[in-house]
Amino acid sequence: MQRGRNMPVSRRKVSVVCVMVLNVLICILMGVTWRYKENNHLKSRTPVTRFWRPEVLNKAFWNKEQHLLDLIYNPNVNFVLSGDSLIELPDWLNDTGPLNPCEPDYRVFTQISDYNSLPQRFQDFLLYLRCRTYPMLMNQPHVCDEKPFLLLVVKSLIPHFDRRQAIRQTWGRAGVVANRTVAMVFLLGNPSPVDHFPNLLEMLVHEEKIHKDLLQWDYRETFFNLTLKEVLFLEWFNQNCPHAQYILKGDDDVFVNTLLIIDLLEGLSDNGAKDVFIGDVISDASPHRDSKLKYYVPESVFEGTYPPYAGGGGYLYSGELALRLYNVSRQVVLYPIDDVYTGMCLKKLGLVPEKHSGFRTFGIEEKYRNNPCIYRSLMLVHSRTPEEMLTIWPWIIHPELDCQ
């Protein structure tokens, strides 16, 4: 111990230097080791294949139109014929059709090989596929002034006066229902004499003056134009009713248990409510290729399978989601089947509709059709006549009915 305290100054300096050099070497070694481990860690997180798989071009007209929209709204989309090898954009992307989207698109004559053999309804639909702007003939801009909790939206045809009136007298009553504000609108197109519709304009004008719940646009009322009815309503909703909390949308031949719908909605959490889309969901469906069927879609028009979608007879969704559907619908090419189209828009938003056993868009068993208690437990049933609606509604609202 004595010798340590009397160590010469020069030897102590040498010891200090050695310690400092050793510390530097340790720091360098630790740094190299850390970088080696970090590089290996990063390599382990780097995907072997591309995260975004390039879109594959196909020959169907709708698919090519959708590819074009994808390119417009997402310039980073890569187009390939097959595999992962990039190619130059095909010529058809430069063939953009008429400047006015509501003029006939005569490209379809050459781009759809079997166009001339398609049913007339398909030919008409394809000629005006890009048109989404139609004059409004009847509007109700104040129907949502009370900021409804539930907006009932019914797709109808002008001659269906009896159906609309039955709905108004039963499940579609506007006002305060179960302590919640409910509003109602009917969606109408403009029937053409070409389709052999009678002229009922005077009756329609009289109906509008009395009830003030009709929304009508000047487009041809056809089955394939139900998709137009959908996107035009979303545009109207965005402009006139953006504060409605929920929407129940259905056909004019469905029966809806409005009280049960409100009860279901009141039980939703705030977080779950914004993305809610409930109905009778159909999954793993594909286009029908039999030209005799109502839902026939030829391969020259569309290739692929359908995303999950709720049957168009009726479904329930949030007002917030309706606003997002309106925005994203501009990125999805119109499709001739409206409920499939809505499923496509949901997929674009990264959402999947929720299946609920209370929505029966394909009806219920015949033995239950006249059972009052069955309707107490169901949200929506398709299809019912005006007479049946007037029969069923008292079963819903009369508390003395025992269904224990």
Q: Mind explaining what this structure looks like?
A:
It catalyses: a beta-D-galactosyl-(1->4)-N-acetyl-beta-D-glucosaminyl derivative + UDP-N-acetyl-alpha-D-glucosamine = an N-acetyl-beta-D-glucosaminyl-(1->3)-beta-D-galactosyl-(1->4)-N-acetyl-beta-D-glucosaminyl derivative + UDP + H(+). This protein has helices at residues 2-5, 9-45, 61-73, 108-111, 120-127, 161-169, 201-211, 226-240, 258-266, 270-273, 319-329, 338-348, 372-376, 386-397, and strands at 55-56, 79-80, 136-138, 150-155, 175-177, 180-190, 214-220, 246-251, 254-256, 277-282, 309-318, 354-355, 359-360, 380-382. The chain is an alpha/beta fold and 404 residues long. The chain folds into two domains: 55-127, no CATH class; 136-397, Spore Coat Polysaccharide Biosynthesis Protein SpsA, Chain A (Alpha-Beta Complex), CATH 3.90.550.50. The strands form three sheets. Strands 3, 4, 5, 6, 7, 8, 10, 11 and 12 form a nine-stranded mixed beta sheet that branches. It is globular, with a radius of gyration of 31 Å.
